[in-house]
Amino acid sequence: MRRSAREIGEQVSCDARYVGRVESGEIRCPNYAYERVFRHMFPGCSLTDMGFAPREAVRGRAARTRRAQTDERAPLQSTMRRNDSTHSPLPPFTIRSDSPGFTVFPNCPEYDEESDVLRRAFMTGGPAALTATSLGGTAPSAWADRPAPPAVPAHAHVGDAEAGAVEDAVRRIRLLDDRHGGARLYRRAIGSLQAAYGMLDAGSHRQSITDRLHAGAGELAISVGWLAHDSGRYSDARSHYGEALATARVAQDPALEAHAFCNTAFLARDAGRPREAVRAAQAGRQAAESLGSHHLLSLLALREAGGWSGLGDRAGCRQALARARRLFAKGTCENDPEWMTFFGEAELEGLEAQCWSALGMWDRAAEHAARAVQLQDPHFTRNRALFTAELAGDLAALGQAEEAAAAGSQALDFLGPVQSTRISAMLEAAAERLTAFRGEPAVAAFLDRRAATV
């Protein structure tokens, strides 16, 4: 907590006693300084996501009136034990979250019960524990060897909570991937995927829950496939993406189908199958046409451009890049998928840099890679490492040895918290190009440091 506070310029006197007060529920809502630290530690999570009460529920006259009413009611401990997430057959990467249909009513005592369970789970288990371990400097690889959860019994009740747990698993994996890359997370995430499809097989009596489970399991398959992709496990990634595509077709879900094709195109490009990349991106565009998301269509155009660049087709690549920029310029909208939070101007520049690099146009590649590094949100640690490694390779190809070595050294700084086979391979390629310049001190220092990390 103190280290995270320093990262954003805050000063908090957090100690074990404070953590204990949070876990026990004595601190129902942190003050503003601690709130900023919590939000920095767990990006994308609100206070209620973490199990705290809304500020308006614990501050001011309304809160005092509510406490007076609550004091007259019986304690809730027995109910809390019954709802504790440790007894639910949830995927191992999830936290027992309030179900998406749960509404917070300021004068409803059931909220206190739910938030106590949520906060305790968030602070002591699931992905929060992994995130805390990672931020503390300890590699989370120990999680990878834990056994997968048992299969969900056919007679198990599958409802809102279970569907919400699958959806929560997707969000948590994405947050962790943004910071750590896929290599550390893949094996652990497999257990979540198995549990999600186990819930789908168990079935639900409500079509709305079945639809959510299909969408959630499909998105989870894509997330796990991406972790495999980023780890260099291309055959595993292809299988997971195929599973997501099959789920999308069964559920007649065009949004999921577009996402599956988008990732399949990216994988095909990296795996050396550029024509498949073009076809998958075009199929994704057909699925996405009715969704009303300009940014999704922009990303699919970039995937198509990556395929054309792999084929050496400059005209096709330029046309796809121009289409991607036109669509991107139309801006975000409510129809943009939740998974596209990473897609901003930095990603646009970075993917274009990779296209020019594949075409051997190193000057243009370096120009766009430098913009990507400059524009990237600090939260996306993995992408900062990726674009910096891309810049190092492009500069090395241009013969700008010292600048390439500086970028390569900066990318190596990220490879403590980030474990990505793709990024390591990019740095290896940059190092090979720089071996001819070993006589320069900065280059020698980078090459020696990189060799020590292999």
From TrEMBL:
The source's domain of life comes to Bacteria
What InterPro entries does the annotation carry?
Answer: TPR-like_helical_dom_sf
Give the span(s) annotated as Disordered: 60-96
What is the name listed in the Swiss-Prot or TrEMBL entry for this protein? Transcriptional regulator
- Per the UniProt record, the source organism is Streptomyces qinglanensis
- Record lineage: Bacteria, Bacillati, Actinomycetota, Actinomycetes, Kitasatosporales
